[in-house]
Structure formats: C-alpha cells, structure tokens
Amino acid sequence: MLTVDFDRLGLQPGERVLDMGAGGGRHAFEMYRRGADVVAFDMDADELANVLEVFGAMKEQGEVPAGAAADIKQGDALQLPFADGEFDRIVAAEVLEHIHADVDAITELVRVLRPGGTLAISVPRWLPEVINWKLSDDYHNAPGGHIRIYTDHELIDKVTKAGKFNDGTPGDAMVFEGKDYAHGLHAPYWWIKCAVGVTNDDNFFARTYHKLLVWEIMKQPKTLEYAGKVLDPLIGKSMVLYFRKPDVA
C-alpha cells in the first residue's frame, strides 16, 4: 500500500534514495524494485531487521534489477548519519507527525538531499485527522502517537524555509512542486475505529471494513480502485507534498 507516487518523485534506476522513518519498509521495497540504491532508515531495530530480511528475499527471488542495492540504518531523524547532499530522492512517509522537533528533522532531510534532488513527505490530512482526534483521545495519546495535525500551508512553509543554499546562505532552500492525497478508503475505517474504540477489533463494523481493506490491498479490484480515486481528493487520509531542492551555481 503505497502513499508516494514515485513517478512524480522522479525516481530513476541507480539513484541513491533514503526512506526516512521506513517502518515496515513498504516504500523502501518499491524503490528497490525500481532499481534504486536504497537506505531504509528508522529508530526501531526490530522493524529494520525485518526490512533487511525482505530485501534479501527480494534479491533471491529475482524481484530487483541487476545493480540495485538496499541496506538499513538505525538512528535519530534529528541527526541523520549521512553526508550533505548524499541522496537523489528522499521519502518521509507518515513520520513527521510523530516528531516533536519536526523543523530539525526537516532541516536534516534538506541537508542530505542533493541539489536538484526531490523530496516527498506524507502526513495525515487535516480534516480526516481532526475527526479522529475528536472521536478518540486514545487515537493520538498512545506512546509514540501523533502529536500534531498539519495543514498543507504549515508544512509547506516549514519545508520551503528549511536548510541553507549551497554557499551557506540561509533561505528558502526547497521549492514546493505540488500535492496529492491518498487512501480515501482508509479514512472511514479509522473514523469507525475511533468511534467504537481503537483497540476494539471485535466490533462488527470495524472488523467488516478491515476485511474490505485487506481485499483492496491483496486483490486490487477495479471497483475499489475507482472508488479510491474518487474518494482520495475528498477524504484521502494522507496528504503527500512534493519538493525539489534547486541547483545553486
């Protein structure tokens, strides 16, 4: 279940790419499949161990092009252990809403992105997220849970003002290139979960809707694909913003 559009990101085979806050690795796997040199970065060692295992299985089963590479790296998003301008493309999907010092994390993302490179950031969309917070305190008060709700204007402002130009001059280091929405079918599921209790997996409505989402992911039926395209711009649970770091002479 991908949130980021890699064609829009401009991903090409052989490029060095970072999946910051990789979690279970869904975006890292797709970038590896497309022939990139991937680094899956996260704080959770157990998650990364599973990602590394899947990387190995993908290579053994011939799912990746010759020359593609993939590795994991554990660390802190506020101090990325990478050189300035090391990555051609960066994905940070559903992670900034968990980080208190989000501006510091964004500044690090900008630092390790090469001039001319592109960045995709996804966060929960404002309206679906507000509804979740109104329906349930448990949804966002859990350890490691969401600590803020972004508007598009706030996040665009934070990213475009992060970092420095190549000559060290502070300024608007990133250019906003557009936004998209994803997972329109998933927003109602979380509204149901928040209404009946986020840990209440036995609720009939939550259980039935979950089966629908599993069917969507596993079988990708055309009816649900079309429904998703209709719902994404209306109630898509995730907002995806795309940025480019300009070349500076």
TrEMBL record:
The family database entries (InterPro entries) matched by this protein are listed as: Methyltransf_11 (IPR013216), SAM-dependent_MTases_sf (IPR029063)
Q: Which UniProt keywords apply?
A: Methyltransferase, Transferase
Q: Which GO terms describe its biological process?
A: methylation
**EC numbers, comma separated:** 2.1.1.-
Which Gene3D superfamilies did the record assign? Vaccinia Virus protein VP39
Domain of life where this protein originates: Bacteria
Listed GO MF terms: methyltransferase activity
User: Enzyme group, top EC level?
Assistant: transferase
Q: Where is the Methyltransferase type domain?
A: 18-121
Q: Which residues lie in coiled coils?
A: none
Q: What is this protein called?
A: Class I SAM-dependent methyltransferase
Q: Which organism is it from?
A: Nocardioides hankookensis
